[in-house]
Amino acid sequence: MTDQHAATPDEVVPGEPSAGGVRRARAVIGRAVRSTLPSRSTGDVRRVDRVVPEATVARLAVYLRALSALAEQGVVTVSSEELATAAGVNSANLRKDLSHLGSYGTRGVGYDVAVLVERIENTLGLTRRLAVALVGVGNLGHALAGYGGFTTRGFHIAALLDADPARVGEKIAGLVVRHVDELPEVVSELDIAIGVIATPAHAAQAVCDQLVDCGVTSILNFAPTVLVVPDGVDVRKVDLAIELQILSFHEQRKIRPIGGSALEGVS
């Protein structure tokens, strides 16, 4: 079992999703999702995974995003300093990360953007579009279903499922919501590689178990709970509330008087 990163805001609670709730959820999804999407490894990629540190793998997705933006701007080559700045990392760390892929750049020239994009995509297993099944179509599920960032990064939402009979048959982002009991058929028919859980906390473990039973071994969890999975199943956890709490900690440090203690007022 892999680590579970950080869950769902209250928009996931069952009920008719409000337009405002969907907009608020969409506003924070892009940043949260980009760095947490798991990938299904091919045989070649598994071989690379044994030598590439986990921290480096996480940063590769950030480099890929920066490189894709540079490519869209027509940039052909980029220096390590320029790419590090675009990715928000230290240039020395970036060069070390890329060396794990056998990419060292050319002195005085830098890295070929197209070649580096291809190498990172190969390492991350993004050489083919991976099908994603999204379970839970509350406010957050609606927002995820319509999130365009999946397609541009090698993923596509292939199926939407929910346990609420009132939601089944609803059309969202061009897909008809199916009942979660159809999950085995959906996984088989659509070759689902990744399961995304956007259900309330109390339902998440059961949905996770269903996904695992169907052979899905890569799961992105937005539910505010820790999932228990067998060895060989990768889980990434997105907890938007925790991220806000961390920001709150840093915010209070900005406004605390100089010399103030973190335990000030505690008896």
Poorly predicted regions are 5-16, 38-50
Beta-strand share of residues: 5-15%
Q: Overall pLDDT, averaged?
A: 81
The major β-sheet equals:
6 strands, parallel
Q: What is the structural class?
A: alpha/beta
Q: What is the topology, as strand order, of the major beta sheet?
A: 7-4-3-8-9-10
Supply Rg. Answer: 20 Å
What is the H/E order?
HHHEHHEHEHHEEEEHEHEEH
Number of strands: 10
What does this 3D model show about the protein?
By secondary structure, the chain is an alpha/beta fold. It contains eleven helices and ten strands. The protein has a six-stranded parallel sheet with strand order 7-4-3-8-9-10, with helices on both faces. Strand 8, helix 10 and strand 9 form a beta-alpha-beta unit. Helix 3 crosses helix 4, helix 3 runs antiparallel to helix 6 and helix 4 crosses helix 5. It is globular. About 9% of the residues have low confidence.
Notable traits:
267 residues; alpha/beta; two-stranded antiparallel ribbon; 11 helices; 44% helix
Strand and helix map with partners:
Blueprint: H1 19-34, H2 43-49, H3 54-72, E1 77-78, H4 80-87, H5 91-99, E2 111-112, H6 113-123, E3 130-135, H7 139-145, H8 149-152, E4 155-162, E5 171-172, E6 175-176, E7 178-179, H9 183-190, E8 192-197, H10 201-213, E9 218-221, E10 234-237, H11 240-255
Parallel strand pairs: 3-4, 3-8, 4-7, 8-9, 9-10
Antiparallel strand pairs: 1-2, 5-6
